[in-house]
Amino acid sequence: GQQLNQSPQSMFIQEGEDVSMNCTSSSIFNTWLWYKQDPGEGPVLLIALYKAGELTSNGRLTAQFGITRKDSFLNISASIPSDVGIYFCAVNLQERRFGAGTRLTVKP
Amino acid sequence: DTGVSQDPRHKITKRGQNVTFRCDPISEHNRLYWYRQTLGQGPEFLTYFQNEAQLEKSRLLSDRFSAERPKGSFSTLEIQRTEQGDSAMYLCASSLSSGNTDTQYFGPGTRLTVL
């Protein structure tokens, strides 16, 4: 029901390529969030989305809140080596629920 | 640095021992959250405080786990009689709840290894 399905699980790309990942659920949410986590560190908030259909950018990152309120997408353009890490989608319930993450590897 | 801090960063203990972790939130934040994260998974919610009141506890939080935030500032998470399955990264986050927004800022985590 409220589980978040995040895909892909992992991606191996060449530096300079664009990246797309998404999160889906069978439930409706009012907020979608995207975090990045580096090894041994806590997640860092990248983008927060509060309205269905909203498209928000943060530098080379763009995220969209799906119109059905059941999904969200994160795109990274012109990837660079420091984009390496695990990207998590999350939603706001009383607490915050996270997807299982997309592990991104960028080859120089 | 005025971010969320956690201590210790790493803890190795033997099964059956008690451990306590500390989290210092961002100073003006009224909410404080504890999460647990295992390898290959996203963080899982354990509990949260609004000021000093513990408002929500996950069913993941067994009787061996207890969290406190006595003065509404720092918080401690204690695990009694640790088990190997308790090995995980324990993350703390804080936020200043305001209307619809509740942006949580995470600390670096405490990695627990139970031998």
Give a description of the structure.
The complex is a heterodimer of chains A (108) and B (115). Chain A is mainly beta. In chain A, a hairpin with a 3-residue loop joins β9 and β10. The model of chain A has no long low-confidence stretch (mean pLDDT 93). Chain B is globular, with a radius of gyration of 13 Å. In chain B, a hairpin with a 6-residue loop joins β4 and β5. In chain B, strands 2, 4, 5, 6, 9, 10 and 11 form a seven-stranded mixed beta sheet that branches. In chain B, strands 1-3-8-7 form a four-stranded antiparallel beta sheet, with no helix packed on it. Chain B contains no helices and eleven strands.
Number of helices of chain B: 0
As an assembly, this protein is heterodimer
Beta-strand content estimate of chain A: over 45%
Poorly predicted regions of chain A: none
Rg value of chain B: 13 Å
CA-CA gap between termini of chain B:
33 Å
The count of β-strands of chain B is 11
Largest interface: A-B, 23 and 26 residues
Structural class of chain B: mainly beta
Number of helices of chain A: 0
pLDDT < 50 runs, ≥5 residues of chain B: none
Strand content of chain B: over 45%
- Helical percent range of chain B? under 10%
Helical content class of chain A: under 10%
**Largest β sheet strand count, sense and barrel closure of chain A:** 6 strands, mixed
**Tally of strands of chain A:** 11
End-to-end Cα distance of chain A, whole Å, is 40 Å
* Structural class by SSE content of chain A: mainly beta
- Which of globular, elongated, flat, extended, rod-shaped describes the shape of chain A? globular
